[in-house]
């Protein structure tokens, strides 16, 4: 799936996180959309491995650690922390964490409907999960 679709879906799911009560803790709609879009696109940062070794990237690195449900909380915390550092709003960390985790989860969910497969339980398992290819048959 392309990165733009992932970013748009991340922005969309960012609106599903409940807003904080206090105004200092609350993320604005624009902040939610930008953080959600960044989180939705984040797992494809593993593309940097393509610049190092294209064949190894395709065979081993792509859709591994950054696409893992087991590592999703770590990626969400990293993105929320970077957001709070950049905006100097430590009070909004919990809400930013929810937005970031949902954005990354939306990316993983979208990659699951591809035929290529995603290692959602990495590093616990190297098995790729994917939707099954259509089993159409034409009978004459």
Summarize the structure.
With about 140 residues, the chain is mainly alpha-helical. It is about 55% helix and about 0% strand.
Q: Could you characterize what this model shows?
A:
The protein is an all-alpha fold. It has one domain (3-112). It has helices spanning 3-14, 29-41, 48-52, 54-61, 72-87, 93-112. The longest helix is centred in the C-terminal third of the chain and has 20 residues, at 93-112. The chain is globular, with a radius of gyration of 17 Å. The model has no long low-confidence stretch (mean pLDDT 85).
Number of strands: 0
What is the tally of helical segments? 6
Pairing-aware structural class of the strands and helices? Answer: mainly alpha
Helix amount: 40-55%
Regions with pLDDT < 50 over 5+ consecutive residues?
none
Instruction: Please tell me the total number of domains.
Output: 1
Query: What percentage of the residues does DSSP assign to strands (E)?
Result: under 5%
SSE ordering = HHHHHH
**Main sheet specs:** none
What is the residue-mean pLDDT, rounded to a whole number?
85
Q: Can you lay out the helices and strands and say which pair or pack?
A:
Blueprint: H1 3-14, H2 29-41, H3 48-52, H4 54-61, H5 72-87, H6 93-112
